[in-house]
Amino acid sequence: ESFNTAVEAASELNAFIVTTPEKALEAADAVDAARAKGEVLGSMAGVPIGMKDLFATDGVQTTAASHILEGFIPRYESTVSAKLWEAGCGMLGKLNLDQFAMGSSNETSYFGNVASPWRKEGTNAAMSPGGSSGGSSAAVAARIAPAATGTDTGGSIRQPAAFTGICGIKPTYGRCSRWGVVAFASSLDQAGPMARSVEDCAIMLGAMAGFDPKDSTSLDAPVPDWFGGLDADMRGKRVGIPKEYRMEGTDQAILDSWDKGAEWLRDAGAEIVEVSLPHTKYALPAYYIVAPAEASSNLARYDGVRYGLRDLPEGAGLQDMYAATRAAGFGDEVKRRVMLGTYVLSAGFYDAYYTQAMKVRTLVQRDFDAAFEQCDVILAPTTPTPSFPLNSLNDDPLTMYLNDVFAVPASLAGLPAMSVPATVTEDGLPLGLQIVGRAMDEQGVLNAGLAIE
Ligand code: GLN
């Protein structure tokens, strides 16, 4: 019964592309049976979760929220989802997202936009839950699912978490296997948990992470007990405040929230120091070259032969089928990225754009290396603005891209980064703060998050 109430709420928000209540119940039954036999239970025994529809799920349609994958039913399970089932989770359904995880508002989905459960005080306009993991953020914020998976290429876990007042962590690149996750930009894509609390994120990340020989960039390192290691005592820790993040165009409420966060960490015993990340302003343009370049290559596989949609006009040849399938199957934002990507990789422009962006990426990484000589974690806003009404930025891709300005540097550097809810605006919208840590130091990130929470 409570599931049906939740489903109703979820359908108002359009958070799910498909629901699979029977899978959640099966997992609960399996836990009951295991408990009756006195077996050791998994770390997430019986917890019903939402699965971003970017993870391949055996026997359950997997679309990446694109028409081109509609009807695609994988015969394999992504490593991350398999690990979660092994830990005892059950699947409530596949969550809506921006098409191929390209977007910051969840409006690029073929299956319609997702609405945030939040409203600005005194207004009734539906707000964006952020993106690309907007089905995940909306479902967790609306208490439809206690937790959900997300993926983050340039902010897609952190920005939606910030917009909806929940927690989300993108671990160090390589911590979670990319095997079976629909690829967007492979050198940046990372899976991670989205949940109500830092504690829940620590438990869930523990279940998701681990070396996987099927992913050539998987990190071959043991998974620490992050939940067991949680400690909000910040004494002896230095927290860096990057001065270049004080950017024009950032809301005053966000700057105030940032100051508050620093104060809370100081109260928890941390020393606050100013650090410099001088190449910050080049990170976003570099990201919007590297990510589309990789996407244009990754998305070449959707040709009408191997997956989902096939558009074969009467009397058409192979090339015509490719063209017709891709024209009908990809949404506008996906096409924009493919065109951007093929352009920056083309013989005449490769050096001017792609090579240059890769150099910037190295400089951004070096900025962080230098900053982490002076501090243990970095505190920054997650986004430059709170959530915005749906349909308000659709005609303005550049402003939309700017939403990720604080998120992409950590992505380019492959560092663990988390968003935790901090304050609310005067009109009642949640604001998140971001903590970035050294490579492999998820624990430091989670602990600072706990001190803020
Ligand atoms: N919003 C960013 C983009 O559109 C990031 C997306 C993501 O992290 N998947 O590329």
Automatic annotation (TrEMBL):
NCBIfam families hit by this protein: gatA (TIGR00132)
Protein name stated in the entry: Glutamyl-tRNA(Gln) amidotransferase subunit A
InterPro entries recorded: Amidase (IPR000120), Amidase_CS (IPR020556), Amidase_dom (IPR023631), AS_sf (IPR036928), GatA (IPR004412)
Keyword annotations of the record: ATP-binding, Ligase, Nucleotide-binding, Protein biosynthesis
Gene Ontology MF terms: glutaminyl-tRNA synthase (glutamine-hydrolyzing) activity
Subunit structure comment from the entry: Heterotrimer of A, B and C subunits.
Pfam family, one: Amidase
Family: Belongs to the amidase family. GatA subfamily.
Organism: Aurantiacibacter sediminis
Catalytic activity line of the entry: L-glutamyl-tRNA(Gln) + L-glutamine + ATP + H2O = L-glutaminyl-tRNA(Gln) + L-glutamate + ADP + phosphate + H(+)
Catalytic residues, chain numbering: 52 (charge relay system), 132 (charge relay system), 156 (acyl-ester intermediate)
Every Amidase domain range: 2-446
Keyword ATP-binding: yes
Protein function: Allows the formation of correctly charged Gln-tRNA(Gln) through the transamidation of misacylated Glu-tRNA(Gln) in organisms which lack glutaminyl-tRNA synthetase. The reaction takes place in the presence of glutamine and ATP through an activated gamma-phospho-Glu-tRNA(Gln).
EC primary class: ligase
Top-rank lineage group of the source organism: Bacteria
E.C. number: 6.3.5.7
